[in-house]
Amino acid sequence: MSVAAANVPAMPDAEDVRRIALSLPDTTEKIAWSMPTFRVAGKMFATLPENETSIAVRCPKVERDELVLAEPGKFWIASHEAQFAWVRARLDALEGEGELRDILADSWRQAAPTRLLEAHPRLGLPATE
After folding, report:
1. Entry's Pfam families (predicted)?
2. Domains of the chain
């Protein structure tokens, strides 16, 4: 393997989504609409739709629109989710497991109850330098 290839993050897959999502506090997996969904305290924050090559996550509409405009190869809005604060992300376009973890943790924060947010105040927030 070349040095350049060693520095390229591995493309996340459905098992990475499952492992990372289930590592977040009080998260469970439930099949709904014939697909895996991930819930914090019973409230859905991520799904693995279609053939598990993308994820759908919570995202405020303003941020979602900015993401889609900035990186249309990575993010898009499914037509049936346009009225909701959700965005899709292509797993093969993510910059490794770190970006996947950030996306899932951010979505988790949007769905988590106050007691969990207070117990995990840094979870899902951008790292400070």
Report:
1. YjbR
2. 3-113 (3.90.1150.30)
| H/E run at residue 3 | helix 3-7
Whole-number pLDDT of residue 129: 47
14-23 and 96-111 helices cross at what angle (nearest 10)?
50
115 phi-psi bin (left φ>0, alpha ψ -120 to 50, beta other)? alpha
Q: Give the residues across from 55 on adjacent strands.
A: 89
Radius of gyration of the chain (CA): 15
Give the torsion sign (CA, 24, 30, 31, 33).
Answer: negative
Query: pTM for the complete prediction?
Result: 0.89
**Residue 48, exposed/middle/buried by CB under 10 A (0-12, 13-18, 19+)?**
buried
